[in-house]
């Protein structure tokens, strides 16, 4: 079991703007209203190097919205421990983590729109994050309006 799978099992994610895959690969991300997807994927990093003994490095997450993908699983969006935090995730049909993204300053994600294989998550502060449901690193077609509020 990878560190991210262990954290997800307790409904926790690292307090770091990042994309995590269940296989243990992680990348830094940044909210980027100028990017078609609303965010930019940056350098990979080793989650194992974060301070596991420090409880302040994780945030409890709670879902506010889901989108059913049928037998292919579901998408989940919600909030972290603090009001400014938000997360989005793709889960398997049996609710195992495929990938999750956490943002410290997005506010909670409370809406999901599906269009084919693209999902657009919208936060309570108006940030829009568009992802390919299978791999959020895949570029999505067309521009997205990224901060409405």
Oligomeric state as shown? single chain
- Total separate domains: 1
Strand order in the sheet with the most strands: 4-3-2-9-8-7-6
* Largest sheet, strands/sense/barrel: 7 strands, antiparallel
Q: Unreliable stretches, pLDDT < 50, 5 or more residues?
A: none
The total strand number stands at: 12
Count of helices? 1
Provide the helix percentage: under 10%
Strand content: 35-45%
Radius of gyration: 14 Å
In sequence order, what are the helices and strands, one letter per element? HEEEEEEEEEEEE
N- to C-terminal distance:
40 Å
Derived from helix and strand composition plus strand pairing, the structural class reads mainly beta
Q: Return the average pLDDT rounded to an integer.
A: 91
CA-based shape: globular
């Amino acid at each position: 079991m990878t560190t991210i799978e262990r954290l997800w099992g307790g409904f926790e994610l690292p307090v770091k703007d990042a994309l995590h895959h269940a296989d243990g690969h992680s990348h830094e991300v940044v909210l980027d209203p100028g990017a078609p997807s609303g965010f930019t994927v940056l350098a990979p990093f080793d989650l194992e190097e974060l301070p596991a003994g420090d409880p302040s490095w994780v945030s409890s997450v709670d879902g506010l919205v889901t989108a059913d993908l049928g037998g292919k699983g579901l998408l989940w969006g919600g909030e972290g421990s603090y009001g400014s935090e938000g997360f989005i995730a793709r889960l398997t049909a049996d609710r195992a983590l495929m990938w999750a993204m956490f943002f410290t300053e997005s506010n909670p994600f409370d809406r999901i729109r599906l269009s084919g294989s693209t999902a657009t998550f919208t936060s309570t502060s108006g940030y829009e994050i568009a992802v390919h449901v299978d791999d959020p690193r895949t570029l999505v077609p067309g521009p997205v309006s990224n901060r409405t509020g």
